[in-house]
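Quick question, first post here. What does this chain look like in 3D?
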Amino acid sequence: MKKIIKFLIVPAFVAAGILSSCHKLDVKVTSELTPESFPVTPAQYASVIGPVYTALRSDYAVSYWFLQSCSSDEAILPAYGANWYDGNKYQELHRHTWTKDNGWVNSVWSYLENIIGTTNQTIYIVKKSPDGPAKDASLAELKTMRALSYFYLMDSYGNVPLDTAYGTGELQTNTPRAQVFNFIESELKSAIPYLSTASGASTYGKPNRYTAFALLAKMYLNAEVYTGTAKYNECIAACDSVMNSGNYSLEPMSTYLKMFYPTNGPSMKEFIFAIPYDPSTSNGTMFYARYDLNRNLGIRYSYSGSTAGGNIDPIMNKTTGNGLSNNKPSGPRATLPEYYANFNDPNDIRDKQWLTGPQYWPDGNPIMVKTTKSGYDQFYTGSDGGAEYIYPLVIDPNIVLRANPALFDVGNDEIGWNMGTRNIKFYPDYTNTTSRNQSNDVPIFRYSDIMLMKAEAILRGGTATLGQTALSLVNMLRANRTTSAARTSVTLDDIYAERCREFAWETWHRNDMIRFGKFEDSYGFKNNADTYRRIFPIPTTALSTNPKLVQNPGY
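> Answer (accepted):
Ran it through. Tokens below.
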């Protein structure tokens, strides 16, 4: 997505540089940028708005992913000896014991507040420009981005400060969650008439009208959680607005996995809004896009083989002359057996996004790993611990804290490193061997989500429209994912399982678990059922810089 990324981050520092040069009185003035002259063209507006998109993609693949996914049963990152213990922040997410000092709680708050602050500043600049269609469209785009950021903040932290002014320096106290909901809804509705109705390359990576409708649908589906009042008919209406556009459709089985490959982009028929990534424009953030969405999810080395059959070999590709691997698998985030249990249909293409059990080379031979006896098992007590040991690579779906449960430690050996079913949905760019930067764009809203949100809203009491039922919508999706027989009935539990299969690793699972009443369930090593943990605490850093903030209940 190189060209799109460059368009989205056209340097706005040019204007800053020109303004700073005004202090150099000996410099001959050749041009003057004023609100009346800049920005006025679509390209100039794009250059001003670019930093908002840079802020959005800066930490989405790292902090935001960790907070949403590792606090659910979707993902777990245990320690491997001293590796990834990191001040207990992963264990706290899994066990639901986080505090206001948890590293991910702090960083996500800062990440989202940074997007909001950057957007407020940009809106301030754009509002001073001359009136016209380009200005109206730019303000609508910015309001939608701010609404998305406030949605993430409200969803994660509940009562949050509403700060929409730039330059005042006035601190804001928490706004009740329901009022934040109303603000986001109002902002989106006011933006919709001015947002583009186009899709594809011309609007890719930027919110169009259907991005706003998709966000409204997500808001309305969760409205009872956020406000206490259900809005299922409103959810259905927002979904219908996307469906009636005719701009989107489901990818068939043959291209489902390709939606997440390094080659994805505007050609993906399901993408309503996505964050574009490209290694050539990395300023440090793209390292994380590759490392955390790919390499650290079970893909330690570049892949050079076939994906046929589901058992593939991106874990290790450097071999000795006899086909043995000298590399151990990465010690990454894995999924839990409770979540993986939803992937129980061998005819479903979505089952192919996981690595588990025996692993094979592309020619069908088992991957054999060469290490030492002590390297394989750190608790080996024999005198020949340094002797060569060769074993077939088997990824054990069960995760056991066999080294030190108090430190969340599975062991810093190959038994430990081979634990946990791995997700390879965001497949690695094996043509890029010089860095960990990655080209996989990350979808935020997909057409399949629109379909499943509408199906769920109907089951929860909304009125069916367009001749569609919950059952017909689910079967329409499944017809593009599996060759198994269509369903004859559908329940909310079926919708939940379908969402697990469809949106694994896409940061929606915590949101789903809360709405379906499953966030307090026991899974893995977690048995904490505190309901106040459906929202995270206001972090220490925020409380220290804004004394007007009030901590969330329970913390």
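Residues 9-25, 283-321 have pLDDT under 50 and may be disordered.
The CA atoms of residues 169 and 273 lie 33 Å apart.
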